[in-house]
Amino acid sequence: MRVLAAIKRVPITGGRIVLTEDSRAIDTRHLGFTMSPHEECGVEEAVRLIEANKGDSVVVTLGPPEAVEQLRDAMALGIDRALHLQTDGQEWDGEATASALLDAIRADEAANGQFDIIFFGNESADSGGFQVGIRVARGLERPCVTGLKKVTVDGLSVRCEQDVEGGRDVYIVPMPAVVTVKEGLNLPRYPSVPGKMRARNKQVAVTAPSRPAPRLELVSLAVPAGQGRRAESLGTGAAAAPAVVEVLRKAGVL
Amino acid sequence: MSVLVLMEPGDPSRQMLTLARKFGEPLQAVHMNAVEPFAPDALAAILQRGADELQASAVFAAGSERGNEVMARFAARSGLPFAANCVAVTPVQPVTVTRLRWGGSLLEDALLHSARPLITVAPHTVPIEAGPEPTDVDVKPFVAGLDERDLLVHVSDHVAPANGGVSLTTAKVIVSGGRGVGSKEGFAIIEELAGLLGAAVGCSRAVTSAGWRPHSDQVGQTGTKVAPEVYIACGISGATQHMAGLKGAKRIVAINSDPQAPLMLNADYTVAGDLKEIVPAISAEIRKRR
Predict the structure, then answer these.
(1) ipTM associated with this complex
(2) A37 preceded by cis ω (within 30°)?
């Protein structure tokens, strides 16, 4: 079995987002980075599939040179090798990202055979475009199911469960397939020390696609005005309990 | 020229019409239930044919899960850019949009370079306004003309929710715990208070990552977005990841030992101190009044 997981390097934003002076990016000088949470579950699922079925697992990202950290994180969890589509740090829109990933996937498949399943996050944590996995699936002419909380390989098909109001919808599609997943799909493992050591020696194939002019072109970012809340202190410690109950009573929920 | 809209039951589609009307008239509607059971590629194919035949100047949908999904599929098959979760649009070429990033923690102004802008509108960010109503597109010929491949991905079954507790999405009160709760067992006092209030139990991402609670309890950008009358946050610092799920909460009560925690600064009511004393005291006070 061959499995691919696509990830994106994003900052860990913490409590308050601060922008750069030109308001075109987040000021990340004091921030750590991670892969988007949904994608972490895609990586975990890819590792589990190869543990159960044997084969080849690959992780791919489009991002700056530093995104190799997130590729190594994925390999520390058990992914075999990485494809790094390196950028100069400029943002790529969803359409351009999908197009570059599609080229990289086609090249890897031409050399090594078709991926049975390709995992994407349902949407990236930062830009939230909701489209890269869907566009790649269309390019590959493969079925795509989105927003999944459970993925089960059953013979030559994939059973997919998607959270909807009042339960879950089930889709069954043949492989090869593209799935976009959400956090909650599984509980990703922590990387082990030997896993991290092994990741250092795993292969990262670097290419540098050229960035087309974006058709969804970022102009500027802004932090939205606060929600207008002005916290009223109800007191300190257990002595504040009657005041809390009073708030609940006034809200009509008690 | 007309504007094509993809309609679903509920307010988000009504809110979407407010922005769609800026692109002109008439509004013509395709409904999400045009193909049953739901088949997202089939909906996208219908939108594509509809947009071509009506020469639609723009296509809009609500930024719901399905709205975003179908519009992305439509964008992919027609080779057009797509702007998801917009809160404002200017219909002059090139179209400018303001859209949500980071689950709403950040706003992006962007240019959408496209002769046919494909836009979804973020739910609960735009008011419903009175105006011309869309007329329904006759989709029968489009449905009859669907390709087998467009029906390959479809809903084939439905399974009921796993737990029978109070649902986070519909709960009037949510008692939620964060890292400050300290352990899986620590949630006993959270559950006790939730039980007394008929509330749902929620938690932060730190809690699910630690394995203390299932992901179905997680409130936030990558968990559930909630809209209760009262949200009681116990020992939750209030990272942007968590706050993105709280935008619909009417009142937030924060209980935290750190008065400078972001959630304490963004709450309506705060109690400073040890949640392990405060939460049981609230439960005791409720019992006393009964």
Answers:
(1) 0.95
(2) no
Residues B207 and B178: beta-carbon distance below 8 Å: yes
Q: Where does residue B151 rank: exposed (0-12), middle (13-18), buried (19+ CB within 10 A)? A: middle
The reply to whether residue B109 touches residue A221, judged by beta carbons under 8 angstroms, is yes
The residue of chain B with its CA nearest to that of A238 is B278
CB distance A6 to A61 below 8 Å: yes
Q: Hey, which residues does B175 pair with through a beta bridge? A: B201, B232
Q: Do A130 and B156 touch (CB under 8 A)?
A: no
Count Cα neighbours of A195 within 13 Å in the Cβ-side half-sphere: 15
Task: For chain A, positions 189-248, list CB contacts with chain B under 8 A.
Answer: 213-224, 226-227, 229-245, 247-248
Say whether both B17 and B139 belong to one domain. yes
Residue B162 domain flag = no
pLDDT digits (tens, 9 = 90+) for A143-163: 999 999 999 999 899 999 999
HSE-CB of B204 using CA atoms within 13 angstroms: 23
Instruction: Show the domain range for B17.
Output: 3-151
pTM: 0.94
- One domain, residues B42 and B129: yes
pLDDT at B161: 74
Going from the C-alpha of B64 to that of each of A75, B103, B130, the distances in angstroms are: 34, 13, 21
What local confidence, expressed as pLDDT, does residue A225 receive? 80
The pair of three-digit structure tokens given for residue B89, joined into one six-digit string: 């649009």
